[in-house]
Amino acid sequence: xxxxxxxxxxxxxxxxxxxxxxxxxxxxxxxxxxxxxxxxxxxxxxxxxxxxxxxxxxxxxxxxxxxxxxxxxxxxxxxxxxxxxxxxxxxxxxxxxxxxxxxxxxxxxxxxxxxxxxxxxxxxxxxxxxxxxxxxxxxxxxxxxxxxxxxxxxxxxxxxxxxxxxxxxxxxxxxxxxxxxxxxxxxxxxxxxxxxxxxxxxxxxxxxxxxxxxxxxxxxxxxxxx
Length: 226
Description:
The chain is mainly α. The chain has one domain. The chain has helices at residues 4-98, 102-110, 114-124, 147-193, 199-222.
């Protein structure tokens, strides 16, 4: 029959071996958790930096969109005034021509805008007073151009490009914010795992945190950089 003292010694040695094993697992889990926490800190800082950068780019793009929209509207207003001026001077020329007042008609003709004069010259060659197929006036001619209207179109197209850039940049910023939320979840799970004394539950929670960290790092690597 074994002595009680030997049983006690055997029990103590078994407990010691279990404690050493638990300590070994705890150390490995501690290293994993430390790596996860360090990675989360770096990734969160980078993700926040990129979100702020993309948000700034989006704000500048929206500002330029508003600026070029206003410039386009100004040019369109001027284009409308040019068209109104062309119509008024042409009506005056037509009335003077019909009345036989050639001097007055010549006066109106000299007041035509250079752009309008090109279209008027092409329209006059069609013998419009006797040719029913001729357009109703020079503004309906292919040669009729309005520089302000063309500039308004160009500015409007440019403003839309900036608007699209603003929307795209804002989306990139939101993507980085979403990554930051995932990283916060990783941080929470890592902190939670450290509250467990048993290696099993602690390892499971730390593993989930590590998987979420890998997904977050993948998104950070693949997302565009500002």
